[in-house]
Amino acid sequence: MKQTDLKPFIKQFFTKHHAQIKDERDDLLTVQLTKSLDQQLMNRPFYWQYVNTMGFEGEPMTVSFAFSDQYDLHTERIHLGSPRLHQIFQIVKDEGVFATLFDQTDSTDNMLDPWFVFNGYIQYQGAWLEEESVSVGILLTNGTMRFAWMDAVMDIPFNPVIPSYQFKLPIIISLEHGLEKIINELQSRIEKQSKEFVKESLTLYEQEVSLLNTLSHEQDEESKQFYNHSHDQIYNRLYPRIDINLINAGLFYTNRQTTQRLTNA
Amino acid sequence: MKPTIKTDHLWNSFEQAIEGHHSDWETFKQAYQLSQLPISQQNELKALQYLPNLTLLDHQEEAVKKVLHNMHGRAILADEVGLGKTIEAGVILKELMIKGLVRRALILVPPSLLSQWESELNQTFYIPARAKHRSYPWESYEIVIASIDLAKKEPHASSLQEQSFDCVIVDEAHRLKNPKTKNFKFVQQLQSTYCLLLTATPIQNSIDDVYYLMKIVRPGLLGDRRLFHKRVNHRHDEAIQSLIRQSMVRTRKRDIETQWGERHIDTMYVDFSSDEQGFYEKLASSETNHQLTALTYEREFCSSREALYVSLQKQDEQHAMLEEIGQLPHHAKALKAIELIQSLDEPVIIFTEYKSTQVYLQWLCQQNNIRAIPYNGDFKKSKKQWMLQLFQQHGDVLITTDAGTEGLNLQYCHHMIHYDLPWNPMRLEQRIGRIHRYGQTQDINIYYLILSNTIEEHIWEVLYEKLSAFEGLIGEIDHILSSYGLSNFEDEITTIYEESRSKAEADIKINNLMSVIEYEHLEEETKDETN
Question: Which residues form the signal peptide (chain B) (predicted)?
């Protein structure tokens, strides 16, 4: 995301959350928050508790966001580092963590195939740090798996409402089972491709521990504790560690054409 | 060997996700795309993308990468003063936080730097760090800044040692080099995955100093004490150096000097008007019970009539002089300053020691149609910001006292007037550091205004002329003094004047002090050369 993308993003976010845009200029956006946005963003729980106890309406704040250096004291500067932006990112990520959606492209057929989709990232920590993004869909009728699922469907219109005259094929593999299969597949892929990472990390780890061991003849209580702490610290940093993390997941229904496109490629 | 691949937390987040609210396609796509932001390749630095207002110098970026990628997050950052150790530490911490590897951090700093660290981490790095408040327990903080003097005391020390931190940062870490001190023992017992020790002088007296710092950062790297001493005794210096380099980054000013703009220094002598000179001499010869009081009055008058007036007013018996001050013309130095400002067609920063002078100068500027903005440490945070804003957008002059300017970045300014001289040359260096700092590529101009035939000229001669002969010396003064058990330069000078019966006696003592500093500095230089 670039600095120029931020204003459209912020505007879209607030419009979507029913906040009123009160003023808009090239590098400025003034927004009247809703009660719910105020509670999520402005960090004033005591005010809202007071308002609720007293039975008042409450007055959500109006905020001006500035997208360039030219700001004054009453605006909030928005750039890629600003905490406010990341707060909004987090709201979007939380809201978009799960979805059930239906393919809206025209189809000659009337059947919809169920996919379970897992988007996540794998984090490697040890001799080096690295993340790898993964997007996997599994067809819940027969277990067919497709990697880079999201990339393939970015332009397809999906909607939470099922199109008229279409019906869903029944789910044979449960969502949980689908996720399990995906995890197993990821694990075996990781094992194959992470050999070098694991080997290098273990070497480093053992090297550090042996350095530490040169101190181990110091036997008083303090030294022992120091040894243990140091050992933990080395383990935490260098012992090869691989985590699979969730970004979001969903149940997606696609029509036959889309399914075919997804399973062939 | 098979790696352990963790998935437990994955199931938790999946269960939470599936129970939650179901989103639309746009939001789902956005959430997916936003989560790609921190994803990085092997050894790629992500933090800079989150810090669009920060530009790292080459040596800083190199240091950050080395610490993160080669030293795996435990290191001694030992750049010389003014090269941005704090910046490097900030970027490293930010990177580890973006990666989710650091959630809890403890930052130990000297008490005088607490608020500077707090504002720098928050404003430059957007890291929500808070200084420890006495009513809240340590557990309630995620990123906490505290003075090491507080933290090492009970009950804090035990409480901190029971907790585990993801990252510990210690500023001015040369205070840990003595293994017998509480400082060292306390930090050694902290549990922390990542650890950064910041010091401009990792080796103060001998190579021994670095042994204990290294023991905290990378236990065992230098072997145990016996082995280390054996190596030192056998002059295996090179072997030791190369070991140290595995966990220490150090850049010197001379390695990067070319990137800095030059300092042009202009010392301007000003004469008092005859009325003022007459008054000054009367003031200097007047009876006071204290050498220091007389000196203080003289210094105040060298700044402005107002500064002296405010100070005399507090004493009852000085009424006669008060009357006389009222009769004096505009201060010769102030008029000179105005003339200087008018001759420069660019924003200027003026430093003064006295608030009353600040007010006077502001008034005088306004009389001359110069837009002057005041700034001082008493202003509230929002007012400070507002004043800086005003200055940057509309101001000709920022008139400020020393308080509250620590850590300010006024790089867009290239002129600075020292209206009065502080007794502590370190303060001078800090002032200049506001405009002559990391990445200042333009030349800067420094002006000293000095009243001839006054205490000011005298201080200039005894303190400053000598010091300015040694580049880089000023930054080390306090440091050199502390190895002699003296607290700081300013106190030392004050004490000398207090305890001396005549100016001549004081001069001799100051001269001696300067020689010590000079000697130590040269020693250090030669030590550095041989390293």
Answer: none
pLDDT in tens, B240-278: 888 888 899 988 876 775 556 777 888 899 999 988 898
What is the predicted pLDDT for the residue at B406? 64
Which has the closest alpha carbon to B179: B192, B194, B189, B168? B189
Q: Is A76 in the same domain as A144?
A: no
Q: Domain tally for chain A?
A: 2
Residue with tokens 């909004």, as numbered in its chain:
A88
From residue B435, alpha-carbon distances to B89, B147, B347, B511 in Å are 22, 28, 12, 31
Best mutation target among B18, B54, B176, B225 (most A Cβ atoms within 10 Å) is B18
Residue A236 distance to chain B (closest CA, Å)? 6
Q: Which of A39, A71, A95 is the last residue of a domain?
A: A95
- Return the biggest CA–CA distance within chain A: 80
- Residue in chain B closest to A213 (alpha carbons) equals B220
Structural domains of chain B, with CATH:
40-256 (3.40.50.10810), 260-468 (3.40.50.300)
Range of the domain at A250: 98-194+240-264
Chain B residues in contact with A129 by the CB 8 A cut-off are: 40, 42-43, 68, 99, 101
Test mutation, B27, B91, B102, chain A, max A CBs within 10 A:
B27
Same domain, A254 and A172: yes
Consecutive H or E run containing B335 = helix B332-343
| Strand-pair partners of A76 | A65
Residues A75 and A90 occupy one common structural domain: yes
Looking at the complex, does the CB of residue B390 fall below 8 Å from at least one CB of chain A?
A: no
Contacts of A80 in chain B (CB under 8 A): 49-50, 52
B5, B14, B195 member nearest A242 (Cβ): B5
In this complex, do B10 and A130 lie within 8 Å of one another by their Cβ atoms? no
- Do residues A130 and A179 both lie within one domain? yes
- List the beta strands (DSSP E) in B122-262: 130-131, 143-147, 164-170, 191-198, 248-249
Nearest to A80 among B49, B125, B215 (CB): B49
Residue A203 lies in a domain: no
Provide the ipTM.
Answer: 0.94
A33-83 tens-digit pLDDT: 999 999 999 989 999 999 989 988 889 999 999 998 776 668 888 988 888
